[in-house]
Amino acid sequence: MAHSSARSGSTPSPARYGFSDAERARSQLIAAGWWSESGPVPAFAEVVAALSRAADPDLALLAVDRFRESVGEWDAVSAELASDPGLRGRLLAVWGVSSAFADHLVAHPEDWQRLRSSRARGPSSVEEYTAALLSAVGAEGGTGEPGTSDGPVAALHGTEATSALRAEYRGLVLEIAGADLGAVVESSLDAPSYERVAAALSDVAVAALRAALAVAVREVGQEMAAARWSVIAMGKCGGRELNYVSDVDVVFVADSEADVAPATRLASTVMQVAGKAFFEVDAALRPEGKSGALVRTLDGHLAYYRRWARTWEFQALLKARAVAGDPELGQRYEDAVQPLVWTAAERKDFVPDVRSMRRRVEDHVPAELAERELKLGRGGLRDVEFAVQLLQMVHGRSEESVRSQSTLDALLSLGDNGYVGRNDAADLVESYRFLRAVEHRLQLRKLLRTHLFPAEGDNETLHSLARSLGLRSRGKQSAGDVLLAEFRRHGNRVRRLHEKLFYRPLLEAVSKVPTAAMRLTTGAAADRLSALGYTSPEGALRHIEALTSGMSRRAAIQGALLPVLLDLFAETPDPDGGLLAYRKVSEALAETPWYLRLLRDEGVVVERLATLLGTSKLVPEMLVRAPEVLRLLADSPALAERDPDEVATSLRSAVSRHPDPERAVATARSLRRYEMLRVGCGDLLGLIEPHRVFRALSTVWVAVLEAALEASARDVAKRPEWMNDAGVPARIAVIGMGRLGGAELGYGSDADVLFVCEPADGVEESTAVRFATAVVEQVRRLLGAPSQDPPLEVDIGLRPEGKQGALVRTLESCVSYYERWADVWEAQALLRARPVAGDGELGRRFCAAIDRFRYPADGLDEAKVREIRRIKARVDSERLPRGADPATHTKLGRGGLADVEWTLQLLQLQHAHAHESLRVTSTVEGLRAASEVGVLDADDTDELVEAWTLAMRSRNAVMLVRGKAGDQLPKQARELAAVAAALGYPAGVDTGEVMDDYLRVTRRARTVVERVFYGEATD
Which of 305, 308, 621, 946 has the lowest tally of Cβ within 10 angstroms? Predict the structure, then answer.
């Protein structure tokens, strides 16, 4: 609107320069000598243009008008503004932001010269600031620090002293503000960083305290200065990150009891002088807070901190810094309290205490202001500071480089050392700087303590605030809208990262590790490892050294993780094996960029990984080849609740994209490895129920088998001898047998199958069989190729004629064989037959055709029952491995898998013709059905189901623990403890109890087997 009005006139209007009241601006500019009827006076065109770049041109011009009337030599000032870009930028920028500094310059017009380029110094040193303030009250001379026996004493006192100090202090802050803001108006000026500005403000505050000391000595008498005492800055002043307007937190310490009384008098006077001249001095962080003594001896401080201090008080001591008074005493104070700070994280409930304190601070923010609170609200400055301080206190025990009093220095060090992700640290630094800059600009307006962001509808304030930060409009967004969007972006990012870091589960685990144990290579560490249960502490230390050696970021992160992992491994059955496995996994994944970041940021991943590595040999072996599963450890539903059918569909889809059968099967193997590892992890962690484990393993095996069959069929069909107009010569169905048919596979199970084919229309049977045989041979070759994964053994020993029979038969040939030649055990084997891959319709017809053999119409006669019992007895005696213990052999032992399965299968052969619900391939479903139809007692059913499930789980546990299949429960105590852990027993359980449980369950099942299967009478 301003521009349109400007275009309508014949001469330039002040409106085009951003002034909202053009007529008032015109009169003020003319009065200043910078405007004529034809527009800006040429000599002052740059000055008017600079005014237009001020955050609030109207505010700046009002300050010009007021200052012009108060200064005695306006023409000289005006001429220098025109000739000195530095002065122009600094002075007009300050006037465009701060009405309070406009007031100061009206009251002290000579201070404009502080901003001249010839004089402007910007942020300076504590010593220079102190000298300026002491000079203001005539406190020159003295050989010691202000407030000490040989320090300078002010010549002025009372109101005269505080007025002089206030004026000089405000002038020094004006210099800092000019340097801070100047680049907004004059781009040629260098803009100091937020850190430099905050440090300069802190240095001025320290200088102010020292000057106040000189005045205090003048007020109370120089004899008081003989007391040895020191002023300790806390909070933002201690960290050299003070605001333009802030209380200054301090603690006072005396050397001896004799020094307490005079030091208390001096301290009280300093607080009064500073409160009138500069800022409030807040001593509430002292021991016992406001109810405690204002001054204590160093010993008194230490006694309090050792006995009574709460967690937040150690957090406050992070920033303790001696700034005034006796420097030697101040240094002793720092040296004495620092060890207390860096062991505070060992306190009981330390991490929850810090988190609770942050929540209490947040809860005190009024709900209607919470979104606008820069300091205390969600996504505000305290979110950054609390997160950084918590990380410092936990990790600073062993890493001295993070022990900085500055929030940003500490954050950058935490990032450099790997305790915070590089990107997270950089994002937090950027957001913290932005929020502090906003806070500074808000406070400059009236030099009042405020942390409240303007309300969304306050467009005028938002606009000027945005411009003071160097933000301008973007497209259709006004500068105020840009600022609002940036404020929300930074606030949301801070909150997200605060919650990620502040509530990181690993922090609690790290805090519980004793400080001495954080130093991983000392002799004390070896003693502690031994006490934790490591059988070879020296070997463990070698692993630790290999993981943490060097100065790399990776070594730093490992140094933070290992103290926690060592404790976690100690809670597993095999701490030494877990640490070795962790080293192997870490070395194998050393170049995987997200690996250590995931462990650092996700505490649950660390805890679960330690459990897995200290229990299982199979998991680490597979993990180095399927590391993506690690990500799932942070997400229980993703780890444990994936639908097996969805897995199978995904696997087949991925494999179908590879025309080459070798690549297709390699892809299938890779996906099977991922799924097998996922299921194994969920199983070991107790997140997946046993029946879901069996089904998931069976489903992925079937998917691999089907993928291999489809790829092989496509490949074989391309061979010259099979290419013809009729297409593929045969349909092939894969019939699952044994535990594959029952969908009850374990981690090390073979796949028992039959292959059935049927000629395509117009194809000779012999041709179809030869084609199908070529396909099956390729399937077996591809799946049977050597691999580091658990084997994919396709067992076709249950086919007609067994190992002497053809690899593939037609449906008619199979039926003919079963009609003429099949023994009773072959009918028994067919009980678990179901179509699993290939041509589904052919598979269903096969199963329908064999129903009359596996569910004989009249059941079994006594001769066949005796034959089955005889075969079972022979299997028990001949197939049990030499030296195996029949009591603890999960497959062939007493009450084991074979006992239960043969018992059910005998019942199915006897009764399935009459009870359709018995016609199932699953052992557990079959047992439940037998109970429901009344051919098996309910209690017997429960005994058999419990024994079968325990045997299957134990067999799987052995595979997970050893990394290779095995049917015998281990005898070695550590292996048996690992099996117990895999079965869900609590840590430290007596392995004798585990074995007793297994023997009791299987003994009861064996009693049922002897009565039901063998027909033996029992008491």
Answer: 308
Give the Cα separation of 689 and 686 in Å (integer): 7
Estimate to the nearest angstrom the gap between the alpha carbon of 249 and the chain centroid.
34
What would the two tokens of residue 65 be?
Answer: 């008008």
Q: Which residue has the tokens 């597979």?
A: 622
Q: Which CATH class is domain 350-511?
A: mainly alpha
Rounded distance, CA 757 to CA 773, Å? 9
* Residues 366 and 374: beta-carbon distance below 8 Å: no
SS3 of 223, please?
helix
Tell which CATH architecture fits domain 862-1012: Up-down Bundle (1.20)
Are 137 and 165 in contact by the 8 Å Cβ rule? The answer is yes
**Contact criterion met (CB below 8 Å) for 417 and 409:** no
Query: What sign for the dihedral angle of Cα 775, 777, 781, 783?
Result: positive
Q: Are 1009 and 895 in contact (CB under 8 A)?
A: yes
Residue 338 binned pLDDT confidence (cut-offs 50, 70, 90): very high
User: What sign for the dihedral angle of Cα 117, 123, 127, 133?
Assistant: positive
Give the three-state DSSP class for 248: strand
DSSP assignment letter at 38: T
| Site of tokens 């994964």 | 789
CA distance 95 to 51: 9
- 566 closest CA partner among 596, 593, 529, 600: 529
Q: How does residue 515 score in pLDDT terms, banded at 50, 70 and 90? A: low
Question: Cα 379 to the chain's mean position, in Å?
Answer: 18
Q: How far apart are CA 342 and CA 339, in angstroms?
A: 5
Quick: pLDDT tens for 832-855. 999 999 999 999 999 999 999 999
Ranges of CATH 1.20.120.330 domains, the chain: 350-511, 862-1012
d(CA 465, CA 484): 10
Q: What is the pLDDT of residues 70-120, one digit of tens each?
A: 998 999 999 999 999 999 999 999 999 999 999 999 999 999 999 999 887
Show the DSSP H helices in 9-55 as ranges. Answer: 22-32, 45-53
**Residue limits of CATH 3.30.460.10 in the chain:** 615-854
Can you state the angle between helices 644-656 and 690-717, rounded to 10 degrees? 20
Give the residues across from 190 on adjacent strands.
Answer: none
Check if the beta carbon of residue 833 is closer than 8 Å to that of residue 735: yes
The pLDDT of residue 720 is: 83
Q: Which of 131, 329, 114 is nearest to 227 (CA)?
A: 329
- In whole angstroms, what is the distance from residue 385 CA to residue 439 CA? 15
For residue 786, what pLDDT band results from cuts at 50, 70 and 90? Answer: confident
Q: At what angle do helices 158-185 and 422-446 cross, to 10 degrees?
A: 120
Average pLDDT in the 379-387 region? 92
Q: What is the 3-state secondary structure (H, E, C) of 170-231?
A: HHHHHHHHHHHHHHHHCCCCCCCCHHHHHHHHHHHHHHHHHHHHHHHHHHHCHHHHHCCEEE
- What is the spatial distance between Cα 683 and Cα 108, in angstroms, rounded to a whole number? 78
Q: Where are the strands (E) in 340-487, listed by range? A: none
Residue in 633, 681, 676 with CA at minimum distance from that of residue 651: 676
- Mean pLDDT of the region 918-933: 97
If DSSP states are collapsed to H, E and C, what string results for 765-792?
HHHHHHHHHHHHHHHHHHHCCCCCCCCC
Helices assigned H by DSSP within 471-574: 479-502, 505-511, 523-532, 537-548, 553-570
483 φ, ψ to 5°? -60, -45
pLDDT recorded at residue 362: 83
Percentage of residues in the chain with pLDDT exceeding 70?
96
Closest CA to 21 of 48, 39, 38, 2: 2
**Average pLDDT of the chain to the nearest whole number:** 91
DSSP 3-state of 35: strand
Pick the CATH number of 615-854 from 1.10.1840.10, 3.30.830.10, 3.40.50.720, 3.30.460.10: 3.30.460.10
